[in-house]
Design a protein that fits this description.
Length: 193
C-alpha cells in the first residue's frame, strides 16, 4: 500500500525552536531551554520586551545558520520513500522563509524533488494525506481525514482524550517509522474488509 505521508518541517525535521532560543538567549541574556517551552507559542515565555516582535526571530539569518537536522529523520524519510510512499513537506511559515526551507530541504533530502513536495498551508487539515507527522497538536486533532503522529516535545504533552481518533505519539524518528508501519497495517486491514 502506498501512503501519502505529510511531514512538518520545524521541530520535526529540524531544531528550529532550539536555534531560535539560542539567538534569543544571546540577545536578551535570558536562559530559556526547550524544557521551559510548555505551550506552542514561544513568545509567551520570553521577556516582555521581546514578546511583541518575537516573530522576527523566525526570519533571522542567525537562526537559520544554527538550524540542524533531527537525528534519524533523513534515514526514515528515505526508507519510506524507497518503500513507495509519497512524502509531502507541509509547513505553516512566513512567506519569506519558504525559499530558505526549500533550499534546506534540497540539501538534506536530495533524493526528493522538493519543488513538487513542499507546501505551505495555514491549516494542515486542508491537506489530503494518509498520515501527518507534526509537533503542533492543533494540526493533529479536529476535523481531519488523516492519521496523526505527534513528535513529543514539552509544548505538546497536554493529555488528549482517548476519544481523539487516529492519533498516536512518538519520541523519535525510529518510533515514527514503527507508527507509520502500524498505521499502514491498519489501513490495509480496512481496505480488505
Amino acid at each position: 500500500m502506498r501512503l501519502i505521508i505529510g511531514v512538518d518541517i520545524d521541530n520535526v525535521l529540524n531544531n528550529l525552536t532550539e536555534a531560535v532560543l539560542s539567538v534569543y538567549n544571546s540577545d536578551s541574556g535570558d536562559n530559556l531551554s526547550l524544557s521551559d517551552i510548555t505551550a506552542y507559542h514561544i513568545e509567551n515565555f520570553v521577556k516582555p520586551a521581546y514578546k511583541e516582535n518575537f516573530w522576527h526571530y523566525f526570519l533571522d539569518k542567525r537562526v537559520w545558520k544554527r538550524i540542524s537536522i533531527i537525528d534519524g529523520c533523513r534515514e526514515v524519510i528515505a526508507k519510506l520513500y524507497n518503500e513507495g510512499h509519497t512524502i509531502l513537506f507541509i509547513t505553516t511559515t512566513e512567506a519569506e522563509n519558504l525559499p530558505k526551507k526549500k533550499n534546506w530541504l534540497q540539501r538534506n533530502f536530495p533524493f526528493l524533488e522538493i519543488r513538487k513536495c513542499l507546501y505551505s498551508c495555514p491549516r494542515k487539515q486542508y491537506m489530503r494525506c494518509d498520515i501527518l507527522i507534526d509537533d503542533c497538536l492543533k494540526n493533529l486533532v479536529g476535523d481531519k481525514e488523516y492519521y496523526s503522529v505527534c513528535l513529543t516535545y514539552p509544548w505538546n504533552t497536554t493529555e488528549l482524550e482517548e476519544s481523539v481518533p487516529m492519533f498516536t505519539r512518538a519520541k523519535d524518528w525510529n518510533e515514527i517509522y514503527n507508527k507509520v508501519k502500524m498505521i499502514e497495517t491498519l489501513l490495509k486491514e480496512d481496505e480488505n474488509e
